[in-house]
């Protein structure tokens, strides 16, 4: 079924928005996001590996040809370093590792080089935004005290390690190792990592901590850096398990109705709200269970299962059986959005991502059942003639479509659904880690270096 869904999403993108970043499935035209400046083709690059994995050979071929002929980084564009890294660099790297086509390696390294000026700050903590022509960077105007964002500068590690591996140029890995060093030198309030860090002073901004937006994939990349290093990156491992410990003590709570959730921390006070984005953490806890101290393995799996259950409730308690952007545990409600501007669903993957990890790691059939409920809801409410659209309010009967087919729907939501209903030997976890946009990157096995040395 996810293959049919992918076909519908892809065919319509191709028909109405080919070469542009995303599709507007209601108005049947292109959607340009300012996250990518005027780099074009986000949906194509984000979807390459999904097409490959689903064996959509014709489509993969036409996408490859578009990349060869049209993907161009010599543009005057201010881009989000994080978004371009996870979607474009990540997408190209996966396409390269899966298909072996040299063009993807070349383009990934070329784009990586364009991103390097972002690190020209007094601390080496990169800017959020970069003009890839002039090399001038800056931060989001809304970010506390001119800070860079934890989830943005903390979500470059996997891709940059691979860029060094594939180019033979150590500079990429050096840049991300320096981020680690800066973080390790800093005092952390209660062992927690604030979402804001000033790249000039090297000081934290507001003491806001979140495992959802602004923080999320920083934690994910600590764990995955260790896994991707064939479990040799002890520093990443320690940072991950220490952070989880602090998160459990200060952010994880149980509602009176028995639902475990992850709150947001603001200078010591808790906001009892959990974002859809935070739901990825169920899968992360379960994936990390294996490396936890031996008496904690079962506990981390259990924590993953509890988060999966809470996020499933957030879906189940809506009219459309699709989860809201954020749900709350206060004022007598549990796992329900209370504010109008938190009731939307934009085709996000995190809940299905967690089902996929929980399924692979436990084989409890309920995760496939929950995944199936999501498929039915997507087909009923998000599928339109011109593709798939987000929904403005998941608590009412009538769909108000937002008219955007997000590129992560093709790279993540549909890929995770496909994997949820596939055998475990498709992209096995021993050999692959998924970047935060669901692009698989191979584990760099300890003896890989030697093998290459021997071949030389
Ligand atoms: C994706 O771009 C990535 O999963 C990112 O980590 C968070 N936001 C979107 C999907 O919701």
UniProtKB/TrEMBL annotation:
<keyword id="KW-0106">Calcium</keyword>
<dbReference type="Pfam" id="PF01532">
    <property type="entry name" value="Glyco_hydro_47"/>
</dbReference>
<dbReference type="GO" id="GO:0005975">
    <property type="term" value="P:carbohydrate metabolic process"/>
</dbReference>
<comment type="similarity">
    <text>Belongs to the glycosyl hydrolase 47 family.</text>
</comment>
<dbReference type="GO" id="GO:0005783">
    <property type="term" value="C:endoplasmic reticulum"/>
</dbReference>
<dbReference type="InterPro" id="IPR001382">
    <property type="entry name" value="Glyco_hydro_47"/>
</dbReference>
<dbReference type="InterPro" id="IPR012341">
    <property type="entry name" value="6hp_glycosidase-like_sf"/>
</dbReference>
<feature type="active site">
    <location>
        <position position="216"/>
    </location>
</feature>
<feature type="disulfide bond">
    <location>
        <begin position="279"/>
        <end position="311"/>
    </location>
</feature>
<keyword id="KW-0472">Membrane</keyword>
<feature type="binding site">
    <location>
        <position position="436"/>
    </location>
    <ligand>
        <name>Ca(2+)</name>
    </ligand>
</feature>
<dbReference type="GO" id="GO:0000139">
    <property type="term" value="C:Golgi membrane"/>
</dbReference>
<dbReference type="InterPro" id="IPR036026">
    <property type="entry name" value="Seven-hairpin_glycosidases"/>
</dbReference>
<keyword id="KW-0326">Glycosidase</keyword>
<dbReference type="GO" id="GO:0005509">
    <property type="term" value="F:calcium ion binding"/>
</dbReference>
<dbReference type="GO" id="GO:0070062">
    <property type="term" value="C:extracellular exosome"/>
</dbReference>
<comment type="function">
    <text>Involved in the maturation of Asn-linked oligosaccharides. Progressively trim alpha-1,2-linked mannose residues from Man(9)GlcNAc(2) to produce Man(5)GlcNAc(2).</text>
</comment>
<dbReference type="GO" id="GO:0004571">
    <property type="term" value="F:mannosyl-oligosaccharide 1,2-alpha-mannosidase activity"/>
</dbReference>
<protein>
    <recommendedName>
        <fullName>alpha-1,2-Mannosidase</fullName>
        <ecNumber>3.2.1.-</ecNumber>
    </recommendedName>
</protein>
<feature type="active site" description="Proton donor">
    <location>
        <position position="325"/>
    </location>
</feature>
<feature type="active site" description="Proton donor">
    <location>
        <position position="83"/>
    </location>
</feature>
<feature type="active site">
    <location>
        <position position="350"/>
    </location>
</feature>
<dbReference type="InterPro" id="IPR050749">
    <property type="entry name" value="Glycosyl_Hydrolase_47"/>
</dbReference>
<keyword id="KW-1015">Disulfide bond</keyword>
<keyword id="KW-0735">Signal-anchor</keyword>
<keyword id="KW-0378">Hydrolase</keyword>
<comment type="pathway">
    <text>Protein modification; protein glycosylation.</text>
</comment>
<keyword id="KW-0479">Metal-binding</keyword>
<keyword id="KW-0812">Transmembrane</keyword>
């Amino acid at each position: 079924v996810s293959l049919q869904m992918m076909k519908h999403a892809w065919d319509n993108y191709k028909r109405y928005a080919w070469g542009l970043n995303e599709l507007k499935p209601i108005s049947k035209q292109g959607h340009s996001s300012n996250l990518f400046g005027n780099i074009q083709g986000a949906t194509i690059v984000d979807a390459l590996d999904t097409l490959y994995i689903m064996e959509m050979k014709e489509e993969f071929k036409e996408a490859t040809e578009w990349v060869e002929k049209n993907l161009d980084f010599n543009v005057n564009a201010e881009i989000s370093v994080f978004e371009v890294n996870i979607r474009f660099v990540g997408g190209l790297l996966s396409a390269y590792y899966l298909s072996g086509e040299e063009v993807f390696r070349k383009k990934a390294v070329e784009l990586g080089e364009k991103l390097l000026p972002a690190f020209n700050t007094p601390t080496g903590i990169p800017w959020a935004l970069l003009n890839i022509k002039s090399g001038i960077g800056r931060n989001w105007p809304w970010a506390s005290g001119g800070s860079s964002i934890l989830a943005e500068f903390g979500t470059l590690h996997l891709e940059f390690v691979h860029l060094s591996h594939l180019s033979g140029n150590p500079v990429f890995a050096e840049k991300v190792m320096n981020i680690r060093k800066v973080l390790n030198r800093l005092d952390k309030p209660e062992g927690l990592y604030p979402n804001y860090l000033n790249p000039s002073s090297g000081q934290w901004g507001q003491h806001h901590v979140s495992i959802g937006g602004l923080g999320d994939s920083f934690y994910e990349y600590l764990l995955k850096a260790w896994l991707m290093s064939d479990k040799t990156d002890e520093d990443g491992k320690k940072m991950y398990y220490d952070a989880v410990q602090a998160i459990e003590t200060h952010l994880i709570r149980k509602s009176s109705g028995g639902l475990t959730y992850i709150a947001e921390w603001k200078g010591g006070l808790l906001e009892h709200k959990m974002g859809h984005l935070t739901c990825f953490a169920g899968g992360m806890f379960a994936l990390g269970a294996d490396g936890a101290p031996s008496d904690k393995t079962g506990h981390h799996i259990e924590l993953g299962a509890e988060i999966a259950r809470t996020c499933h409730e957030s879906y189940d308690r809506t009219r459309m059986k699709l989860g809201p952007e954020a749900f709350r545990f206060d004022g007598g409600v549990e796992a329900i959005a209370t504010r109008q501007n938190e009731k939307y669903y934009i085709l996000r993957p995190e809940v299905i991502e967690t089902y996929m990890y929980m399924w692979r790691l436990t084989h409890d059939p309920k995760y496939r059942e929950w995944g199936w409920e999501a498929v039915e809801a997507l087909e009923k409410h998000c599928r339109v003639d011109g593709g798939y659209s987000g929904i403005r309010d998941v608590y009412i009967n009538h769909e108000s479509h937002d008219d955007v087919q997000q590129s992560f729907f093709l790279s993540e939501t549909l890929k995770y659904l496909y994997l949820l209903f596939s055998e475990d030997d498709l992209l096995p976890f021993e050999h692959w880690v998924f970047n935060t946009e669901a692009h698989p990157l191979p584990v760099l096995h300890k003896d890989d270096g030697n093998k290459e040395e021997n071949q030389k």
